[in-house]
Amino acid sequence: MAFDKIIVVDDELIIRKTLEQQLRNRRYAVASASTIAECEAIMGKDQFDLIFLDVRLPDGDGTDLLERIGDDPDKPMVVMMTGYGSVESAVNCMRLGAFDYVIKPFSSDQIEVILKKAESFSQLVKVSRYLNTEGQSKSGIIGESAPMQDLKKIIRKVAATEATVLITGENGTGKELVANEIHRLSSLVNAPFIRVNCAAISENLIESEFFGHEKGSFTGATQRREGRFELANNGTILLDEISEISPQLQAKLLRVLQEKEFERVGGNKTIRVNVRVLATTNRDLMKEVDAGRFRQDLFYRLNVFPIHVPALRDRKDDIPLLASRFLEVFTRKHGHSVKGYSKSAEEALVAHDWPGNVRELQNTIERAVILCDNNAYITPANLGLIRMSRGGAEVLEAQSKPVAADAPMPSGDDTPGEGGVIPLEEVERRHILHALSCTSGNRTQAAELLSISIRTLRNKINQYRIEGIEIPEPAAK
To answer: Could you give the count of Cα atoms lying within 13 Å of 84 in the half-sphere of its Cβ?
Structure first.
């Protein structure tokens, strides 16, 4: 990650001018000062990446300035310079936060080494800060079915290269996990791995997220910021749901893939990067191209090596393994003791079509763990599976009579309707009553259990009261 702006602070004119010239030859923007006061005035007007700071200056000691800027999270890196080197002085400068320490007179080669070290360290710090903010997915690919065995073989082959990969599949199939596995098995595993969820970032901000921005380039841009492509330099970037970006940004992304260069928003300096690109989409990009919503040239740049992730309904042999793994995770997370799945629950899991794929299965198991009594088996009632058609929800998968291991819902008639199923409205009512029962009438907690807003829950409760159904009052605080 290249630096942009550097300050040279030294009262010796020859040293200051020589260092300035070397830095300008490397296309840095360089400011210079001969005193601490001049340096502080320059820093108050702009943001800088690095300071070459002399220890002895006319108006004080450079270490005083080093100490003053030490607590600023966006502080520039500092390289201390001195003509009176000693071990004690070097140790003191490093203790106060200096990145490096150089004794005058120094050679241009020494400065080159310092710059390379500083740029590498700066990228490491910024990538670590980003990863700590975003979090890291630690889940692996789970599945031993034939489709998953084929998928794993393909992943191993393409991971050994640095080819651009386009990962397709329905929502919830685990496309991001495939990208994680490609990175984990690649030669770039120890390099940055940066993710961008294109669908989660507003159209006004996504260009800045991709390429960064300069201070003052738009309202709220109070500091210069590196984009995700800069953070991913010499590593890998994952563009999740790539089909969601605008045509204007598609053109700029194409340039990065072709020329490996871009400018920050509001900037005019061309930044070059070397980044491996992985992209995911839940859409048919060829249809998007035909409809004029996605650039054909960008599609071919991304589609160097396509990988399709199978839907869960096409690998049902993996459902028991996935359900077992999720049960372990969520019993530990919520502190519940669950014996396992009842036989009828296991059958219901395998019989379900899972239109939401692995993500739906994961959410279903977590909800079932919360609803299940301690030291009991998870039942179909806990799972609450709803059969989905392409037009929407149809019916609940339920038995006409609960077996001994399967606890019924807390209220309501268990008699199925036409076709041996319970109407969806009745299923909804029972789930709301059950959630209110589990939370002793606490509507906020019930809404959280049901993954709906408190407003939606309140509207449903009012609807049931109109129909003459008894609803518990909110729990007392």
So the answer is: 7
Q: What does the domain layout of the chain look like in residue ranges?
A: 5-133, 146-310, 313-466
Segment 380-386 long-range contacts (CB within 8 Å, at least 24 positions apart): 380/342, 380/344, 380/345, 380/348, 380/406, 381/406, 381/407, 381/408, 381/409, 382/345, 382/407, 383/345, 383/348, 383/349, 384/427, 384/431, 385/348, 385/349, 385/352, 386/424, 386/427
Stretch 86-92: mean pLDDT, rounded?
Answer: 79
Peptide bond into 105 cis (omega under 30): yes
Say whether pLDDT at 130 is over 80. Answer: no
Signed CA dihedral, 69, 71, 74, 76: sign only? positive
CATH code of the region 5-133:
3.40.50.2300
CATH 3.30.497.10 for the 146-310 domain, yes or no: no
Residue 191 has pLDDT above 70, yes or no: yes
pLDDT of amino acid 71:
67
| Topology (CATH level 3) of domain 313-466 | Helicase, Ruva Protein; domain 3 (1.10.8)
Is 0.70 topped by the overall pTM? Answer: no
Of 326-335, 376-385, 391-400, where does mean pLDDT reach its minimum? Answer: 391-400
> Please, what is the average pLDDT of the chain?
83
- Chain centroid to Cα 210, Å, comes to 13
Q: Is 381 exposed, middle or buried (0-12, 13-18, 19+ CB in 10 A)?
A: buried
- Count Cβ atoms below 10 Å from residue 355 Cβ, excluding itself: 18
Same fold, 146-310 and 313-466: no
Q: Is 384 left (phi over 0), alpha (psi -120 to 50) or beta?
A: left
How far apart are the C-alpha atoms of 183 and 124, rounded to whole Å? Answer: 18
Kind and range of the H or E run holding 4: none
